[in-house]
Amino acid sequence: MTPPSTRNIGLVLMILCMVCAMETLARITTNKRREKSNINLCSKDIDMKLACHCSHEDNRRTVMEVDCLVLHEEFPQSDPAWQSFRQHPNLKHFILTVHRNGYMSYLPSDILKYQKELRTITITYADIREIPTYAFGNLTKLENITLIRSQIEVLDMHSFANHESLRGLNLEENQIVDIDRYAFTNLPELQELLLTKNNLTTLHDEMFADLGNLAKLKLNENLISILTKEMFKGLGNLRQLDLSINNVKYIGDAVFAELWSLQELDLESNSIERLSERAFDGLNNLRTLNLKNNKLETLESGVFTGAPAVTSLYLDNNLLDTLTYSNVLPLMDNLVNHTSILSLSGNTFVCDCRLNWMYDLRNRTKNIDLRRSLDKMVCSLDKSQYDPSKHTRSNNKYNFNHRNYNDDSDNYENELGPFDDLQKSIDGNAMIELRNINVEHLPCTEDLSDPTELPLSRESIGMDLSWLSGAGTCDFGLWVSIVGLTVCLLVA
């Protein structure tokens, strides 16, 4: 039998061994943690899940920019690689791209929120899905955030909030279907918001109300079908609005009235069938209006009265059978300058006296490109009304072959060819360039008065144009421009 003293000594030794083992294990664990926390963010270890290229300031040790690649599909928020960012508190630019072999389904907000000096954040090819509230904390020095091609679907309340120096926010090529009404709050310096190529179907009223300095808003290539005035409330300094390639069918009264600084409005490639006569009211500074590739069949007479400064108007590839003088009257003075653009190709214009004003514009404008564009204007002429003996070249002012403009530097030569266009036919009608028809020979029956009434706001421009409503009855009338007014002189 072992004496008690011997047993006690053995027990003490056993306890001491256990304590030593535990201390050794603790030291090993601590060392491993220390090693992990001391991971060099800028190393080129091929086994790293996160590989970064670092740019230093003036060749010193301070890292100012990191450009990282996520290389592994298992890269959780708890990965020690993220802790290495704490060694670089002066970081100003953060770029992260998920490699095709990698995967990241979250924003690294827990680490980035400590980078108080950050100016730009760029993340590409992630799988984020949702931008949570205060996603980047209160990084008040941020100037640009770019989150593209990252499968984002939802922006929560205050997703982007309290970034008082933020100037650019790019969320293009995601799958955003919903943006909370208060997603963009306290962003007083934001100038550019890009939402191109998402799945937006509607916009909440006053969603941009906190973006008083926004100058550029891109909403093209979405699924937006309805536009209201309230959607754009607060955007009084907006200069450029792109709504092309959406599903808009109708533009109602004063939809853009809040955008009194707007200079460019792009509505190309929607399904617009109708524009209210007051659709563009309030756009006094608009210079460029793009309505290409829509389904417009007619235009209200006063539709451009609310945008009297437009110098570039694109109406290509619609279904218009005419464009009348009362349609373009608010813009006529603009269209005669050197830089004006009036693009009308791809419509189904009918050759009749409603197009008389084009002859005058062609001869008055100082823009060579616009003259050439009008020279190529094609319209459909009813063969039953075609009399070759009437379609001869003359020195009449309105024949396109006669030069009647003051531009000595213009060496442009207009060569009229034979009536080859008459051999082409659409639905039995001859297709002919408008320049090949003398203005007095354009068909003009009594039912060819303007398709709509005169501009509602014609009084606002100090003109009584009621006589124009009967202009279409001048079967052999001659249109003459005198000091900006067009008069129909009856020819016996």
Compute the CA-based radius of gyration: 34 Å
Structural class based on helices, strands and sheet pairing: alpha/beta
Mean pLDDT: 80
Shape: elongated
Contiguous low-pLDDT stretches (5 residues minimum) are 28-37, 391-426, 451-492
The biggest sheet amounts to:
13 strands, mixed
Please report the distance between the alpha carbons of the first and last residues: 147 Å
> Order of strands side by side in the largest beta sheet?
1-2-3-4-6-9-12-13-14-16-18-19-20
Total strands: the figure is 25
**Helix coverage percent:** 10-25%
Strand content: 15-25%
Total number of helical segments?
7
Provide an overview of this structure.
This protein has helices at 4-37, 80-83, 109-112, 325-328, 332-335, 356-364, 368-375, and strands spanning 50-56, 63-70, 93-98, 120-124, 130-131, 144-148, 154-155, 160-161, 168-170, 178-179, 184-185, 192-194, 216-218, 240-242, 250-251, 264-266, 274-275, 288-290, 312-314, 341-343, 378-381, 425-426, 429-433, 477-482, 485-490. With 492 residues, the chain is of the alpha/beta class. The chain is elongated. Mean pLDDT is 80; it is low at 28-37, 391-426 and 451-492.
Q: Descriptors for this entry?
A:
about 500 residues, alpha/beta, 13-stranded mixed beta sheet, 25 strands, elongated
